[in-house]
């Protein structure tokens, strides 16, 4: 018996529904970002090993923590290298090997301690020029690129000092350089604290040039997970995911171990996967995945390994 037209069309509808559901599941697969570079005694291992672990889609090199206001920009990668004597250039080949394995490598600006600020729109533009020529697609006249020739995939803003003035101008200046570089350009990302709006990055985020915003849901008691209570986290998540301009994806930034966040926010991996992530994903179409602070604690905690393929 030939199938009736009605049955036939319901089969097609079923197939379409199935494919759409499959596509939704695939596009809903989150990514994982991690910070590397601040391990005590290099206990975070090498950049190459971090990428080769296969656990992360993005690695933020932490930090360029001196820049702006006339200062000579400076990297602080804890014990990994010393920019002054040129030893950080050894990371160039590791950056390339990360990129060959599909991991995006970014330079993170700022951090909790350092000496950075922007004094004017001109200062912001000159820092953008410096970053472009020394870490991205440009080239420096004297070939003094601190991390060598490898061009990073982008710049991350982890601004935690000062009053936030001129970071919108820095973001815009970087964006125009990156887009001028052609298809692909470079990534601009931001790591605000979870209280909304962020004290330092609000204007920069509102420019709409960031593609990934990883919000720090730790060391912020007013909006982090607290001993089984996710209500403050969920309220802040809704605020952030509603406010961040499209097309940016918003990431849930979490510590890899309790010691990584002295003021709290740690969520054990089982609770994260079974309770918190389902709620967070269900609340926002612009969920992008999870950001982890940091690789140092993850080496021993194995937190990223528990999340692999499940965020
Ligand atoms: C911070 O940088 C300024 C120059 O922009 C410099 O005068 C000052 O000494 C620096 N402070 C520290 C603590 O490094
Ligand atoms: C820039 O540096 C000067 C001199 O060190 C200081 O007085 C001023 O407050 C700094 N400006 C910013 C925006 O940090
Ligand atoms: C931000 O800080 C700088 C340097 O301290 C100061 O010159 C500027 O007036 C401040 N801007 C605002 C909006 O507070
Ligand atoms: C959970 O935290 C919220 C504040 O973030 C508080 O109002 C609420 O009472 C807490 N719930 C429990 C069961 O402790």
From TrEMBL:
Please list the residue ranges annotated as the GH18 domain.
Answer: 30-311
Hydrolase among keywords: yes
Q: Name one GO molecular function term.
A: endochitinase activity
Signal peptide (from-to): 1-23
Enzyme Commission identifier(s): 3.2.1.14
Instruction: Give, as one word, the top-level EC class.
Output: hydrolase
Query: At the top level of its lineage, which domain of life is listed?
Result: Eukaryota
Gene3D superfamilies per UniProt: Glycosidases
Please provide the Gene Ontology terms (biological process) for this protein. Answer: chitin catabolic process; polysaccharide catabolic process
CC annotations in GO: extracellular region
Family affiliation:
Belongs to the glycosyl hydrolase 18 family.
Q: What is this protein called?
A: chitinase
């Amino acid at each position: 018996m030939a199938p009736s037209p009605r049955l036939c069309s319901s089969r097609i509808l079923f197939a379409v529904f199935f494919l759409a559901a499959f596509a939704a599941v695939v596009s809903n697969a989150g990514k994982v970002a991690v910070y590397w570079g601040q391990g005590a005694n290099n206990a975070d291992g090498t950049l190459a090993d971090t990428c080769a672990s296969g656990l992360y889609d993005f690695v933020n090199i932490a930090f360029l923590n001196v820049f702006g206001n006339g200062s000579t920009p400076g990297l602080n990668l804890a014990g990994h290298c010393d920019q002054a004597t040129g030893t950080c250039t050894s990371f160039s080949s590791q950056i390339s090997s990360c990129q060959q394995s599909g991991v995006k490598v970014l330079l993170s600006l700022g951090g909790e301690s350092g000496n950075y600020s922007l004094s004017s729109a001109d200062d912001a533009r000159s820092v953008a020029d410096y970053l472009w020529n020394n870490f991205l697609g440009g080239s420096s006249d004297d070939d003094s690129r601190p991390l060598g020739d490898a061009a990073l995939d982008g710049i991350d803003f982890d601004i935690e000092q000062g009053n936030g003035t001129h970071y919108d101008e820095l973001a815009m200046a970087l964006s125009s350089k990156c887009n001028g570089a052609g298809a692909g350009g470079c990534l601009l990302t931001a790591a605000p604290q979870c209280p909304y709006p962020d004290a330092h990055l609000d204007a920069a985020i509102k420019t709409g040039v960031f593609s990934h915003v990883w919000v720090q849901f730790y060391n912020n008691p007013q909006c982090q997970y607290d001993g089984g209570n996710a209500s403050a986290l969920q309220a802040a998540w809704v605020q952030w995911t509603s406010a961040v301009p499209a097309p940016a994806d918003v990431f849930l930034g979490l510590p890899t171990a309790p010691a990584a966040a002295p003021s709290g926010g740690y969520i054990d991996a089982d609770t994260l996967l079974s309770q918190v992530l389902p709620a967070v994903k269900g609340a926002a179409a612009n969920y992008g995945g999870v950001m982890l602070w940091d690789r140092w604690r993850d080496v021993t905690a194995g937190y990223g390994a528990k999340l692999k393929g499940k965020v």
